[in-house]
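About this split. The held-out portion is used to measure sequence recovery: a designer receives only the structure tokens and must propose an amino acid at every position. Recovery is the fraction of positions where the proposal matches the reference. Here is one held-out target exactly as it appears in the evaluation file.
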């Protein structure tokens, strides 16, 4: 397969790096110092699941220089979605699949409007990974699981080919028969996890250990679940309890990418996480005081430090 990684940060760099190391033809679309490092030194992944070095790494900032590919893994930050979706048009051939591994619940709609729904494959990434230095992806903990599937739940050759490539690369994954539900399953967790770790400026360990902040976390999950169910997403009634149990298994030091971005003065995905839960809650008549407060408290940091 010819694969392009649009957004070669923590998620895209991890998946693309392991695919490239397994022999797939992978080109990274990147920019700035990260692009320069990829071109000059290659890509290195630091992970408890095994370190990987891809040298040389194929990398460019110009999708037109790559041309049509079999698959695009789309992993840009949410605030870059529209611009990046337009930029990848040169990568799209008649049968090209575009797998969104972004956060939030909006990217499928944006990509479908820009590229055509027939090209879009839904996806969900469960991993904590960041650019530790230009050309270096650092994976925290051992969780690294990816779900993806056609939007109508059908089986397809391109999904089967991606699954086979991920198998060869040793990447934990699952083909989903209801990817919208799986995307929302992550959204309920992530909007709350990201919002509170950023609000409190601490990793998840202390937050889940303190009774009051744990209760706040539980309330945020319940609000987001209520929004999902109001929008017709078939998440189970005990989803909050299930998520709390999974949260207790996360590494004590695990931070959200939202907190990492806040600490580094970068732009925040806040409007598409807690902000989106608060907005959709208002639209659906579902109270979301926890997410509304998170959104207001972090609002002035959304554009970063410039």
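Reference sequence for scoring:
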């Amino acid at each position: 397969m010819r694969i392009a990684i649009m957004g070669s940060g923590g998620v895209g760099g991890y998946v693309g790096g392991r695919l490239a190391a397994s022999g797939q033809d992978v080109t990274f679309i990147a920019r700035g110092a990260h692009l320069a490092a990829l071109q000059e030194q290659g890509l290195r992944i630091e992970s408890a699941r095994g370190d990987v070095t891809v040298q040389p790494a194929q990398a460019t900032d110009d999708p037109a220089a790559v041309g049509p590919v079999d698959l695009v893994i789309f992993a840009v930050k949410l605030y870059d979605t529209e611009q990046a979706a337009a930029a990848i048009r040169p990568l799209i051939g008649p049968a090209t699949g575009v797998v969104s591994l972004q956060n939030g619940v909006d990217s499928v709609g944006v990509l479908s409007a820009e590229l055509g729904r027939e090209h879009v494959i839904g996806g969900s990434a469960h991993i904590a990974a960041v650019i530790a230095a230009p050309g270096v992806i650092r994976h925290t903990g051992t969780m690294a699981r990816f779900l993806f599937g056609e939007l109508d739940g059908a089986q397809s050759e391109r999904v089967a080919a991606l699954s086979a490539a991920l198998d060869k690369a040793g990447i934990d994954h699952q083909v989903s028969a209801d990817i919208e539900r799986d995307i929302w399953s992550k959204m309920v967790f992530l909007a709350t996890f990201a919002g509170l770790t950023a609000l409190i400026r601490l990793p998840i360990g202390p937050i889940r250990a303190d009774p009051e902040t744990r209760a706040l976390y539980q309330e945020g999950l319940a609000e987001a679940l209520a929004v999902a169910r109001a929008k017709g997403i078939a998440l189970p009634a005990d989803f909050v309890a299930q998520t709390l149990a999974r949260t207790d298994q996360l590494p004590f030091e695990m931070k959200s990418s939202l907190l990492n971005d806040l600490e580094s003065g970068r732009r925040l995905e806040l409007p598409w996480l807690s902000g989106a839960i608060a907005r959709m809650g208002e639209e659906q008549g579902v109270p979301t005081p926890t997410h509304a407060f998170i959104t207001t408290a972090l609002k002035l940091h959304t554009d970063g430090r410039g």
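Annotator remark: The chain has a mean pLDDT of 96.
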